[in-house]
């Protein structure tokens, strides 16, 4: 799907750098996918913290997992 949006140059540069993509469209697509995935992960972690899901990890372990996943997905290692 084609879509026209306005994104300031500095934000676009940061997105390209964070995703490792040189072309604009793949960089934006990768950033959107990462954002949506992080929202799903955050929702799941919130459910675990609130006790709606029994999970064998501590809150610290879950938060570390989330941090590591973001680092991996955006090449922040």
Q: Low-confidence segments, ≥5 residues, pLDDT <50?
A: none
Mean pLDDT: 84
Radius of gyration (Å): 15 Å
Instruction: Characterize the overall form.
Output: elongated
**Portion of residues within helices:** 55-70%
Write the H/E string, N to C.
Answer: HHH
Number of distinct beta strands? 0
Would you tell me the structural class of the helices and strands? Answer: mainly alpha
Distance between the termini: 32 Å
How many separate helices?
3
Sheet bearing the most strands, described?
Answer: none
Strand content: under 5%
Short précis:
The protein has helices spanning 9-19, 24-49, 59-73.
Give structural notes.
The protein has three helices and no strands. It has 77 residues and is mainly alpha-helical. α1 crosses α2 (24-49) and α2 (24-49) runs antiparallel to α3 (59-73). The protein starts with 8 loop residues before the first helix and ends with a helix. The mean pLDDT is 84.
Layout of strands and helices, then pairs:
Layout: H1 9-19, H2 24-49, H3 59-73
Helix pairs in contact: 1-2, 2-3
Structure keywords:
77 residues; 3 helices
